[in-house]
Specification:
Order of helices and strands: EHEEEHEEEHEE
Helix content: 10-25%
Shape: globular
Number of helices: 3
Largest sheet: 5 strands, mixed
Mean pLDDT: 90
Radius of gyration: 16 Å
Distance between the termini: 19 Å
Number of strands: 9
Structural class: alpha/beta
């Protein structure tokens, strides 16, 4: 953070821990309140979006609206999507990796490193446990790193 010109933190509430996750986001915001190069979006809005250069980066937990992501994001973030050269949406609800082209808007369902809990075991989710770090150029996805 100290070496970045700017940093944007976007919190998306999950369906299992909206209270604890939100409190953690507020604690992070408070802990880094002296960093003037950080902007924070820790609102409880379900659908979020931001521009990074000419990249649109959307995020939602992924437990709601799955069949209407493109329509929902066009409705709420149409101008940003229209000016972007690259459009991506991050979801994570099912805790497994998947990539899907929604008509020029790529959904990246990301995995998690968290241990298997009762819910994921009950629905039969078996997935590799990773975090993804996505690197962007000014106008495109440059690389995806698994950490």
């Amino acid at each position: 953070i100290k070496n970045a010109n700017e940093c944007e933190v976007m919190y998306c509430a999950g369906n299992h821990d909206p209270s604890v996750g939100y409190m953690f986001a507020r604690l992070l915001k408070r802990a880094y309140s002296n960093q003037s190069n950080i902007t924070w979006d820790i609102s409880l809005k379900h659908y979020k979006g931001a521009m990074l250069g000419r990249n649109f980066i959307g995020a939602t937990h992924g437990d709601k609206g799955k069949n209407n992501y493109l329509a929902k994001y066009l409705d709420e973030f149409g101008f940003m999507l229209g000016t972007a050269q690259n459009r991506e949406l991050f979801t994570g609800h099912l805790h497994s990796e998947m990539s899907k082209d929604l008509g020029g808007f790529v959904q990246r369902q990301v995995s998690t490193r968290k241990p298997t809990d009762q819910w994921t075991d009950d629905i039969g989710v078996v997935a590799h446990k990773t975090f993804e770090l996505v690197e962007y150029s000014d106008h495109d996805t440059r690389a995806i790193y698994y950490v």
